[in-house]
Q: What sequence folds into this?
């Protein structure tokens, strides 16, 4: 991406001479596209009211300043854990989110209010429509809506009928993709009634834009979004079947390693709710519960971000095993309330858009104030004829799937159009054709200048009591200069969005999402309400980051010895004994002095080489991303910074140069420092909660494994020049300094074994790790306190005892077969025993159950022919 | 004339390892409808469910939802009922099939709304050019719908090979049509796909069939099987009429209805998920015992 590197050849000087500014500033050079409504410049070339506040400031802004703001935005987005589209990162499979444009989208209060009332009416209509479709079906009976728009919908499920509807509403959060036509009228391009995507994105954009544009934001009286979220929180609390004052609300989201899941998690964090995926929840005796380390806790309200038909494999889509078995039944038993209500999905079928106007008159006797883009539902013969005859001018969409990508007929070849027409004719009720509305333009940053781009906005309306209140904001999607946005894509590598600022005429107060002052806060110090899934990620984060640090130390040691410490005359054809240690390095079966540097390079590796440095870090970042809200923010930032460092590593990555070994060595030093800094941040900034315990436990287990393997590999078979091996061991285990202070340069096997294996005061020793593990296991929550020790505790304790009882003199002695069999068996016992303890510990805390399996049934076969009586 | 039956439908799952929890939905309760009356019904689940409930779905079928939240290695679902089944209808309006199609499509037929869910594609019965062409051989222009449906039923019977094992429980109409073989479920799906391709509302019906032992031999208890066929909407006058393509007949006192839906997926007897269990084996026994003619 070369946007940020754009030089200021076209940029005016920061202090233009008087008279010159008019011709050269970014605003003056902005030229709207003829025929499209622009948000900044009116038909006669004047600046429109919404822009009167910002335009003068924008005239003072240079291209460099905007590029700087763009860069800051990208960095802030990255800190959230999701690189923006367009960011570098070769082989980086991390999820992407839409890039945020450095120009905000501005609306003044009158402009927003015109939209707000119409949006609110539309939300009310769609809620009413869904309610009717799943109860009385008056709109079908009275022939206002063709029944195919309900019954041909592949998402329609019988289970949606007859469920208790708390608060009487199906739709609690509604979103519409809206735009302005050439005549200045608002149009809706489509609706979202199940779990409108983009709510989290809107909040995230706002947090970022308010920070990057603090100068503009503060002066412009931008309406805050927190009020809207407070409405959502109140609505969700009121939905609870019980305990309405303080119900447990969870956000049921997508896989937290996907962009959608990260957005869901952001929303959960912002609202102060627990984020959960299907496997974190279960139903017990009809109740919906959250599976935590401390046991199952009941959940009253589920704000679900996933599709209606995917929440329960028992009564909805049988293959939705990511859902919660029994959730529908739990709702039927009035144990849990789901928002948006199951079945709300039916309201977002694009086919309905052709009928909303008559439906509005039917239900409310009102004209639809936010009209739909002209829509032809092909299930009606005349509409089908029109659509087929005008395919070159229309956009074709699924009649039922609001998320399916629209196809613009104009962009197709004649043959492709014919193909599309044939598909429409085969199942016409599944298609709608829509007329482009001629969307308006808004100023956007193209890297050098501010230019007009087509836009559409996802605007949200939230239920408050009986009314739908639009949030003062939205996610504005930019469509480039020519493209009409048929829908919306909040994600993907191409998407670019703007934050919508609604400018208030009065001073804006600073509300925050906090409890009312009269509510007393309950002091709590534990965090036992941690989903087991989160504990598991933390544990593996600990293991991977430790393995990363260990590998980096191992490589650095190899490199140092290969470059500056060449030993004298290794026996002909024989490897030097310490090189045997590096059979632990992936891809380095038997390195020689010549190949050692190559081995180091290869072991740094790309993200896809298992056990390589790049892979270990990638894994650490992946686990950390999944538990971002549980690790200190600085630690998270450090990790992403390390990842960036690794991508720019010498000799690897795009365009990397084959730099000298000294560079690689310095680079490894930096990585080791980063890893140490991460540990420091974790240890200094995390409360000694369950989260910390699991993270630390992972680290202890990994360090014990690595150190045992190293000692076993290096010392169980004595070699001629053992001093070399011992030096490497001390170096890799970061204990050289301690050793020197105790023994100076007298390096011997027994004393090294004492320090690295049995000395419990050395934080690098095996005994120290084992004792930490035993302590953690003993303090984790137990369901039955009086029961004897659990299997994991017994195993870990056994290992610790074995190390404590070991006599380092005996361990160091070489037996008649010429090996240190005792040492070999002790380290072997640890490397075998820890995985056993880990399995028992996983079964106790991490894995609550294996994957659910689907019941199979026997289909009817019917009796053989001729057996029926005539 | 009507016949009274006692029907027993036992589904048994046996597991090699304990199942820690299961959640199920059953569709094993017969319902009263235009052809039959359910006089008694009992359902026994062993082990006793932790939570269970019964409800009717939007098509009038009785569903049971239950969970068992303690370890078990065996699950037995035992449904028994007494049902009185009427003889097949013999008379009715002779409406052309095209009139039925347009009556439902243009909402002029008195039963259009109830018939509307059954004209669209469903998971196992999808309209296609092939299905349409197949059905069109019997659905000739202007033919009365009852006659056309009977003809299609005979056509399926004669052009398909009854062959257990040729298809699976999840085979759809398209594949069955290509194979020209299968079991009652496939025959029903093929007929449904063909008629829906023409716009005719059709339901999938699951149920049981009375089996007549060979001359001089006693009836074998538990040797019966689940059966499936379709019901065609023949206009408001005649309503839904059941045809059995496996046996090339109109459904009368030998056919006991369990449930009706858009296809098998709507009326699968057992669905749900379970945790654990290792390998599982499934055994289904059905016993249809005629008690008396009523």
A:
């Amino acid at each position: 991406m070369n946007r940020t590197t754009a030089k200021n050849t076209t940029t005016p000087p920061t202090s233009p001479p008087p008279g010159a500014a008019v011709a050269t500033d970014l605003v003056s050079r902005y030229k709207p596209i003829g025929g499209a409504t622009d948000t900044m410049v009116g038909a006669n070339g004047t600046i429109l009211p919404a822009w009167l506040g910002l335009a003068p400031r924008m005239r003072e802004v240079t291209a460099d300043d905007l590029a700087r703001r763009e860069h800051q935005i990208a960095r802030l987005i990255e800190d959230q854990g999701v690189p923006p589209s367009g960011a570098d990162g070769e082989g980086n499979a991390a999820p992407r989110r839409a890039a945020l444009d450095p120009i905000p989208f501005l609306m003044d209060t009158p402009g927003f209010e015109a939209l707000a009332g119409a949006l609110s009416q539309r939300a009310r209509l769609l809620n009413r429509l869904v309610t009717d479709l799943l109860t009385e079906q008056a709109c079908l009976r009275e022939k206002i809506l063709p029944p195919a728009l309900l019954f041909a919908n592949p998402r329609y499920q019988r289970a949606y009928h007859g469920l208790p509807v708390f608060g009487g509403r199906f739709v609690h959060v509604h979103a519409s993709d809206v735009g302005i036509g050439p005549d200045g009228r608002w149009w809706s391009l489509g609706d979202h009634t199940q779990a409108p995507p983009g709510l989290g994105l809107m909040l995230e954009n706002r947090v970022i834009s308010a920070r990057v544009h603090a100068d503009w934001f503060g002066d412009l009286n931008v309406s805050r979004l927190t009020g809207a979220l407070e409405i959502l929180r109140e609505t969700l609390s009121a939905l609870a079947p019980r305990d309405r004052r303080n119900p447990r609300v969870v956000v049921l989201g997508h896989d937290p390693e996907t962009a959608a899941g990260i957005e869901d998690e952001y929303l959960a964090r912002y609202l102060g709710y627990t984020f959960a995926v299907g496997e974190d929840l279960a139903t017990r005796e009809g109740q919906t519960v959250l599976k935590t380390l401390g046991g199952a806790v009941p959940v009253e309200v589920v704000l679900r971000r996933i599709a209606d038909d995917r929440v329960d494999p028992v009564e909805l889509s049988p293959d939705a095993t990511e859902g919660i078995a029994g959730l529908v039944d739990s709702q039927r038993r009035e144990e849990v309330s789901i928002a948006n209500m199951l079945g709300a999905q039916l309201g977002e079928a694009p086919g309905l858009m052709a009928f909303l106007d008559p439906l509005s008159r039917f239900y409310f006797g009102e004209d639809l104030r936010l009209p739909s883009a002209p829509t032809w539902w092909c299930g009606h013969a005349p509409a089908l004829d029109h659509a087929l005859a005008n395919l070159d001018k229309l956009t074709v969409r699924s009649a039922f799937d609001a998320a399916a990508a629209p196809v613009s007929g104009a962009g197709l070849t004649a043959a492709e159009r014919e193909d599309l027409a044939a598909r429409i004719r085969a199942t016409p009720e599944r298609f709608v054709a829509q007329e482009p509305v001629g969307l308006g333009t808004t100023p956007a940053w193209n890297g050098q200048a501010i230019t007009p781009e087509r836009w559409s906005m996802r605007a949200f309306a939230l239920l408050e009591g009986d009314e739908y209140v639009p949030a003062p904001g939205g996610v504005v999607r930019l469509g480039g200069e020519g493209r009409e946005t048929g829908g919306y894509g909040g994600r993907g590598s191409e998407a670019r969005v703007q934050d919508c600022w609604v400018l208030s005429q009065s001073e804006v107060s600073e509300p925050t999402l906090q409890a009312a002052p009269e509510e007393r806060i309950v002091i709590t110090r534990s965090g036992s309400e941690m989903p087991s899934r989160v504990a598991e990620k933390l544990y593996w984060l600990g293991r991977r980051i430790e393995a990363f640090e260990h590998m980096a130390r191992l490589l650095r040691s190899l490199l140092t010895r290969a470059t500056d410490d060449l030993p004298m005359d290794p026996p002909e054809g024989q490897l030097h004994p310490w090189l045997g240690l590096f059979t632990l390095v992936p891809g380095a079966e038997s390195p020689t002095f010549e190949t050692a540097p190559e081995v180091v390079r290869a072991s740094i590796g790309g993200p896809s080489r298992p056990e390589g440095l790049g892979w270990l870090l990638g894994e650490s970042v992946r686990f950390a991303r999944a538990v971002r809200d549980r690790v200190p923010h600085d630690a998270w930032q450090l990790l992403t910074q390390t990842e960036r460092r690794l991508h720019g590593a010498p000799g690897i990555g795009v365009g990397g140069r084959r730099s000298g070994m000294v560079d690689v060595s310095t680079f490894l030093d930096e990585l080791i420092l980063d890893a140490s800094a991460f540990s420091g941040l974790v240890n200094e900034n995390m409360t000694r909660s369950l989260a910390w315990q699991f993270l630390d436990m992972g680290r202890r287990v990994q360090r014990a494994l690595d150190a045992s393997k190293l000692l076993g590999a290096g010392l169980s078979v004595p070699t001629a020049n053992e001093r070399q091996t011992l030096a490497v061991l001390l170096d890799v285990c970061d204990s050289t300094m301690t050793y020197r202070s105790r023994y100076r340069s007298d390096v011997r096997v027994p004393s090294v074994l004492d320090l690295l294996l049995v000395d419990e005061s050395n934080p690098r020793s095996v005994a120290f790790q084992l004792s930490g593990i035993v302590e953690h296991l003993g303090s984790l929550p137990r369901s039955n306190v009086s029961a004897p020790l659990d299997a994991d505790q017994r195993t870990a304790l056994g290992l610790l005892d074995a190390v404590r009882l070991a006599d380092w003199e005996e361990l160091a002695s070489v037996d008649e077969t010429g090996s240190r069999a005792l040492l070999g068996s002790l380290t072997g016992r640890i490397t075998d025993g820890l995985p056993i303890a880990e399995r028992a510990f996983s079964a106790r805390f991490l894995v609550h159950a294996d994957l659910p399996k689907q019941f199979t049934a026997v289909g009817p076969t019917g009796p053989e022919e001729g057996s029926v009586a005539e | 004339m009507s016949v009274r039956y006692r029907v027993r439908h036992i589904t048994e799952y046996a597991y090699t390892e304990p199942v820690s929890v299961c959640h199920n939905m059953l569709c094993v309760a017969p319902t009263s409808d235009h052809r039959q009356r359910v006089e008694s019904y009992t359902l026994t689940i062993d082990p006793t469910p932790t939570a269970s409930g019964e409800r009717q779905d939007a098509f009038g079928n009785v569903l049971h939802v239950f969970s068992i939240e303690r370890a078990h290695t065996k699950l037995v679902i035992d449904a028994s009922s007494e049902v009185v089944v009427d003889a097949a209808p013999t008379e009715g309006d002779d409406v052309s099939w095209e009139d039925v199609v347009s009556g439902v499509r243009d909402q002029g037929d008195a039963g259009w709304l109830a018939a509307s869910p059954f004209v669209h594609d469903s998971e196992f019965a999808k309209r296609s050019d092939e299905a349409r062409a197949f059905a069109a051989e019997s659905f000739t222009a202007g033919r009365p719908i009852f006659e056309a449906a009977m003809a299609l039923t005979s056509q399926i019977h004669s052009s398909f090979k009854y062959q257990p094992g040729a298809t699976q429980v999840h085979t759809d109409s398209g594949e069955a049509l290509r194979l020209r073989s299968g079991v009652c479920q496939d025959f029903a799906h093929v007929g449904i796909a063909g008629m829906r391709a023409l716009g005719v509302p059709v339901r999938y019906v699951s149920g049981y069939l009375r089996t007549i032992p060979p001359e001089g031999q006693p009836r074998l208890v538990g040797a019966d099987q689940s059966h499936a066929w379709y019901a065609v909407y023949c206009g408001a006058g005649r309503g839904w009429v059941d045809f059995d393509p496996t046996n090339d007949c109109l459904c009368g006192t030998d056919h006991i209805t369990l449930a009706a839906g858009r296809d098998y997926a709507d009326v699968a007897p057992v669905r749900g998920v379970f945790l654990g269990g290792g390998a599982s084996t499934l055994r289904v026994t059905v016993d249809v015992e005629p008690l008396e003619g009523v």
In short: The radius of gyration of chain A is 32 Å. The CA atoms of residues 452 and 561 of chain A lie 61 Å apart. Chain A touches chain B through 50 residues (CB under 8 Å). The mean pLDDT of chain A is 84.
